Amino acid sequence: MRQDPQTALVLFSGGQDSTTCLAWALARFEHVETIGFDYGQRHRIEIEVRPRILHRIRSDFQHWQGQLGEDHLIDLTVLGQISDTALTRSVEIAVQENGLPNTFVPGRNLLFLGFAGALAYRRGAKHLVAGMCETDYSGYPDCRDDTIKAMQLALNLGMEARFVIHTPLMWIDKAQTWALAETLGGQPLVELIREDTHSCYNGDREHHHEWGFGCGTCPACQLRAQGWERFQSLRASVATHPQ
């Protein structure tokens, strides 16, 4: 199996983080494909916004034209069937006895990376790009850097391959994620992320805020809103005190 060092597969959910990671990959690799997962998530609106985001990246960003390849949507509804979480059931979001929010879906990122590795093997992609973050997150253990490094080792041993898993957001917060998007694609990419991506755990596309659509109260909305506010403050500070 030949791995192309200029081909990347991005885990693309349709959210802010994965869209930023997609832009990051397009800025570095000649050919980029995307993979998404339907696992019975209650905020499945994210699956519905994916095609529009991909279309806009192809049409609105000429410097990336020709680089964005095939999109793959994988049916993982079995995960939703065996999970009893606030992302796969209509229950109130809350913190559990173990300190983790009940939005944690055990095994989710492990399965995502396993399936992504299997697809990358078939497609000849050397690089996997994912939006896990250990800085500004809800404490999910499968988002930790140690977990990702262990998965990279397991994939390479199990497939006799040399995959490289990139997590460009691992050590930055949401404000820095907005700033990274601006660096990669300018104001047009910031606006695309603000208007078209989806992060809200409740799947709310009715309420519009400065940072985008969402209920405004779930943990995902709160992180996104707080990051947007800090990003705007940083922008204002730079404008007031230019270097």
Automatic annotation (TrEMBL):
Belongs to the QueC family. Gene3D superfamilies: HUPs (3.40.50.620). This is 7-cyano-7-deazaguanine synthase. It comes from Pseudaminobacter soli. Zn(2+) binds at residues 200, 215, 218, 221. Its EC number is 6.3.4.20. It is an enzyme of class 6 (ligase). SUPFAM superfamilies: Adenine nucleotide alpha hydrolases-like.
